C-alpha cells in the first residue's frame, strides 16, 4: 500500500505533549485553513509516495524508544486506507497513536477513530489561536483508553 508523505520527524517531543514520538507528515489537504502550520503539505502534487511497509519498518526498528506515533499533515484523512493500515500496525504495539485532523469528530470514520489513542480534531482557526495546545480553541481533544 502506498502513502503520500511530505516527510517525517524521527524524534520529537512536541507533537505528543512530551512523549517521545515519530511523526508522519501526510501530503495533501483540501481544507486550506488560513494560518495553517504546514502549508507546504497542502498541495497533493508535493511530497513523495512510499510503501507503507517502509514506514512500519522504520517505526519497528525504534519501537523501544517511541511512546507515540503522530499522524499529521496536510490531512491524514485524505488517505484513509493508508492511515487505517498504519493505525492497525500501531494498535498491535505499546505505542500510542495520535491523529491531528481538520475534520470534526463526527466526520472522522469510525474504524479510524477506534484505532486512535488521542485525536486532535477541528480546523485550525487563526482567529481562535491559543498559543498552546490545542492550537485553536475550537479544536477538540479526544483521549481514549485502550481495551485490555
From TrEMBL:
GO terms for molecular function: 4 iron, 4 sulfur cluster binding; [formate-C-acetyltransferase]-activating enzyme activity; metal ion binding; ribonucleoside-diphosphate reductase activity, thioredoxin disulfide as acceptor. InterPro entries: Aldolase_TIM, NrdG, Organic_radical-activating, rSAM, rSAM_sf. Its cofactor is [4Fe-4S] cluster. Its EC number is 1.97.1.-. The keyword Chloroplast does not apply. Keywords: 4Fe-4S, Iron, Iron-sulfur, Metal-binding, Oxidoreductase, S-adenosyl-L-methionine. It is an enzyme of class 1 (oxidoreductase). Pfam families: Fer4_12. Activation of anaerobic ribonucleoside-triphosphate reductase under anaerobic conditions by generation of an organic free radical, using S-adenosylmethionine and reduced flavodoxin as cosubstrates to produce 5'-deoxy-adenosine. Belongs to the organic radical-activating enzymes family. This is Anaerobic ribonucleoside-triphosphate reductase-activating protein. The gene is NrdG.
Amino acid at each position: 500500500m502506498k502513502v503520500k508523505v511530505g516527510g517525517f520527524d524521527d524524534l520529537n517531543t512536541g507533537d505528543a505533549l512530551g512523549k517521545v514520538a515519530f511523526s508522519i507528515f501526510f501530503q495533501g489537504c483540501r481544507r486550506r485553513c488560513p494560518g495553517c502550520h504546514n502549508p507546504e503539505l497542502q498541495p497533493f502534487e508535493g511530497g513523495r509516495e512510499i510503501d507503507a511497509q517502509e514506514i512500519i519498518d522504520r517505526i519497528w526498528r525504534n519501537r523501544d524508544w517511541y511512546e507515540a506515533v503522530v499522524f499529521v499533515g496536510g490531512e491524514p484523512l485524505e488517505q484513509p486506507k493508508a492511515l487505517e493500515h498504519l493505525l492497525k500496525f500501531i494498535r498491535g504495539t505499546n505505542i500510542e497513536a495520535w491523529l491531528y485532523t481538520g475534520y470534526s469528530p463526527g466526520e472522522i470514520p469510525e474504524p479510524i477513530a477506534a484505532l486512535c489513542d488521542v485525536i486532535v480534531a477541528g480546523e485550525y482557526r487563526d482567529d481562535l489561536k491559543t498559543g498552546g495546545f490545542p492550537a485553536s480553541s475550537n479544536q477538540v481533544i479526544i483521549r481514549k483508553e485502550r481495551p485490555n
